[in-house]
Amino acid sequence: MSDNDKKRLSMYENVISFLQENRDIISLNRSFYYSLSKLRKMVDEIKIRDKELSSDTLEKTVKTYNAKDELILSLVSITAALYNFARERNDITLKEKTRISQSFFVRLRDVELINRASGIYQIASLNFNALQKYKVTKELMHDLKAKLDRFSSALDTKVNSFITGDAAVALSNSFNEAESIINNQLDKLVEQFDSVFPEFYDDYLMIRSMENIEEGEEEEMEMENYEQ
Predict the structure, then answer these.
(1) Cα 122 from chain centroid (whole Å)
(2) Percent of residues, the chain, with pLDDT higher than 90
């Protein structure tokens, strides 16, 4: 769940608490209870959907890490062979490109690792015949390509799951439903008490606006409340 979604969820829960604390007012219109019950149900659903998304994301993240580790192990041996080849040929440029440790690969960002692995695979393919002297076989080359493709696919799946996965779509739909209840039902119900209970109305608007307050503003408000 993003920071913005966390703010929205917190606002929903604050709205529920506020209206429950003002039962004497909302009891004047029975529609409040129906809308409030629907919002509470959607808040519970959002929390369930978020757990499902977190679990789904964790599973895909683990697969991506495993695929990354396997790719790096394949890269190390072929990169070492390329470095020895470059050193024997006194190819300074290739030596610089292949003077790489395992820890260097580990520190690379995912996209950087894919680009670096693709480059090494291409160089090794062009010099395959010469690299056989350094125990680079067709099997090692096929293994590197397969692990590169597997890591790229796992990374794409992980990224897409944040946007198009079933759990992500369900969470987004739950938030949209909660927004609809707030905007089209509760806001209009509270507005009816604008002139009769102005303090109730103003307090409600303040709670509704909390999701739009930036972190710096929240800290400033907390300091102001503390000083008071």
Answers:
(1) 32
(2) 68
User: What CA–CA distance (Å, rounded) separates 193 from 69?
Assistant: 61
pLDDT in tens, 88-121: 999 999 999 899 999 999 999 999 999 999 999 9
pTM: 0.54
Q: Residue 95: what residue type? A: K
Tokens linked to 49: 């959907």
Task: Tell me how far apart the terminal alpha carbons of the chain are, to the nearest angstrom.
Answer: 34
Name the nearest CA neighbour of 203 among 30, 28, 14: 14
Cα dihedral: 40, 45, 46, 50 (round 10): 150
CA distance 215 to 10: 14
Measured CA to CA in angstroms, residue 16 lies from 20, 107, 213, 217 at distances of: 6, 46, 19, 23
Contact at 8 Å (CB) between 78 and 120?
yes
CA 208, CA 199: separation in Å to the nearest integer?
A: 14
pLDDT digits (tens, 9 = 90+) for 125-160: 999 999 999 999 999 999 999 999 999 988 887 666
Which contacts (CB < 8 Å, 24+ apart) does range 103-106 have? 105/72, 105/75, 105/76, 106/72
Q: What span, in angstroms and rounded, lies between the C-alpha atoms of 93 and 86?
A: 8
